[in-house]
């Protein structure tokens, strides 16, 4: 039977980092297991193509919520990445650390060691900021962070910031540094014009390590247990079942939906729920799958009086030219997620920190990349920084 010291389930935003760090110790034999495939596809690597992998079953699990009573019964799309890099290979690439006050609140609630002063050294250690290192930013970490085209290729980015300042809000030069609050340029996980997923930042540089094995297109069915200890995984690779043992740990890094689902399929969760779907309970842990939360947003679209938006770049010919330039030079409109300006503001007086986030797009378009209006337009995405709604993840059958 195959054996490894560590088995990491899920090569996503966390799994790739863990594979890098654990395999840095040459005595550790590490297996990274991923249900999806590789991440070298053009639509994954080119930042401007972000709407495409999110719409493809090859890269997106395509989860949907149950009908939401507060949304007139609609089911909400919950995109989650499938493939190396996980959701960091299909997301919007926006890079936001969060407000320092959030970390201070965590610490005040009892999370010792999670204050901003404690986390800042790790933020710096993780990133390679295109602007260089300083008191708040890192310069030599594995994760490349940039500001895209730095608002140079469209005047609407600057107009959005100027409008915020005119309305009485401050301007911030770097919201990931000392002052988050205000209107300013937005940062993204893009390095040298290419999406900087955790696969590219953390996994690719260490794939050569002889003590690290990466297994793709491998579907983990359940966790092997010996009493209250995880001893391995049951996995299906190319329709063939395999059991792989872990000498030290099985690490679940399959994401906020797949991780609790895998635990429940393995008999770990709420006993009554597991029995109702035909799973034999092995360990009572009612919190599995509970308290799910996600960031919410709505976006507002506007017609533009002047022909200065990117709506004239949404036809197939223009997209082809943008893609060709990107393939040759890794620059231009193909090298950005197009969210190059943003804002963090307080909705009312008396709040300690901003509770609303904006990101601005100089085009009016749908999530599939097609224009939503005739002529020129732009849109503003708005969302709460601390949504209060909570949900749950529950399997509906033993093989779900």
Q: Which secondary structure elements does this structure contain, and how are they paired or packed?
A:
Layout: E1 2-9, H1 15-22, E2 30-33, H2 42-45, E3 63-64, E4 77-78, H3 100-108, H4 116-126, E5 127-129, E6 143-145, H5 155-166, E7 182-185, E8 190-191, E9 194-195, H6 198-203, E10 212-215, E11 218-226, E12 229-237, E13 240-252, H7 255-265, E14 268-269, H8 271-276, E15 283-284, E16 298-303, H9 316-329, E17 341-345, E18 356-361, E19 377-384
Parallel strand pairs: 1-2, 1-13, 2-10, 5-6, 14-15
Antiparallel strand pairs: 3-4, 7-17, 8-9, 11-12, 12-13, 16-19, 17-18, 18-19
Main sheet record: 6 strands, mixed
What's the CATH H-level homologous superfamily of the largest domain? Glucose Oxidase, domain 3
What distance separates the N and C termini? 27 Å
Q: What is the CATH level 1 assignment of the largest domain?
A: Alpha Beta
Domain count, please report it.
3
**Number of strand elements:** 19
Structural class: alpha/beta
- Overall CATH architecture of the largest domain: 2-Layer Sandwich
Percent strand: 15-25%
Order of helices and strands: EHEHEEHHEEHEEEHEEEEHEHEEHEEE
Parts with pLDDT < 50 across at least 5 consecutive residues: none
The strand order across the widest sheet is 10-2-1-13-12-11
């Amino acid at each position: 039977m195959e054996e490894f010291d560590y088995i990491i389930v899920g090569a996503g935003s966390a799994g790739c980092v863990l594979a890098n760090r654990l395999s840095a110790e040459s005595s550790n034999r590490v297996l990274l297991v991923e249900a999806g495939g590789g991440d070298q596809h053009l639509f994954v690597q080119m930042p401007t193509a972000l709407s495409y992998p999110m719409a493809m079953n090859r890269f997106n699990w395509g989860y949907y919520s149950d009908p939401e009573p507060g949304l007139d019964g609609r089911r909400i799309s919950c995109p989650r990445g499938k493939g190396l890099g996980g959701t960091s290979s299909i997301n919007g690439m926006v890079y936001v650390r969060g407000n320092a006050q959030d970390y201070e609140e965590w610490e005040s609630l009892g999370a010792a060691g999670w204050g901003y002063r404690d986390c800042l050294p790790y933020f710096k250690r993780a990133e390679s900021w295109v602007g260089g290192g300083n008191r708040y930013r890192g310069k030599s970490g594995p994760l490349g962070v940039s500001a895209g085209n730095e608002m140079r290729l469209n005047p609407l980015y600057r107009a959005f910031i100027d409008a915020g300042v005119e309305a009485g809000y401050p301007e911030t030069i770097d919201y990931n540094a000392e002052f988050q609050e205000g209107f300013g340029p937005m940062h993204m996980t893009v390095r040298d014009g290419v999406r900087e997923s955790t696969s590219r930042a953390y996994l690719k540089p260490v794939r050569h390590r002889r003590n690290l094995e990466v297994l793709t297109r491998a579907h983990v069915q359940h966790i092997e247990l010996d009493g209250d200890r995880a001893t391995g995984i049951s996995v299906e690779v190319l329709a063939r079942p395999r059991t792989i043992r872990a000498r030290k740990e099985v690490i679940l890094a399959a994401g906020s939906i797949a991780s609790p689902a895998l635990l429940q399929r393995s008999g770990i969760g709420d006993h009554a729920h597991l029995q109702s779907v035909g799973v034999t309970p092995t360990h009572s842990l009612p919190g599995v799958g509970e308290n799910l939360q996600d960031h919410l947003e709505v976006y507002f679209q506007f017609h533009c009086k002047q022909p200065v938006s990117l709506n004239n770049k949404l036809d197939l010919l223009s997209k082809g030219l943008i893609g060709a330039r990107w393939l040759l030079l890794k620059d231009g409109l193909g090298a950005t997620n197009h969210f190059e300006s943003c804002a963090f503001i307080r909705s009312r007086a008396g709040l300690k920190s901003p509770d609303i986030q904006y990101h601005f797009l100089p085009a009016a378009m749908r999530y599939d990349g097609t224009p939503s209006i005739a002529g020129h337009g732009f849109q503003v995405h708005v969302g709460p920084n601390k949504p209060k709604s909570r949900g749950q993840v529950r399997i509906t059958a033993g093989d779900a």
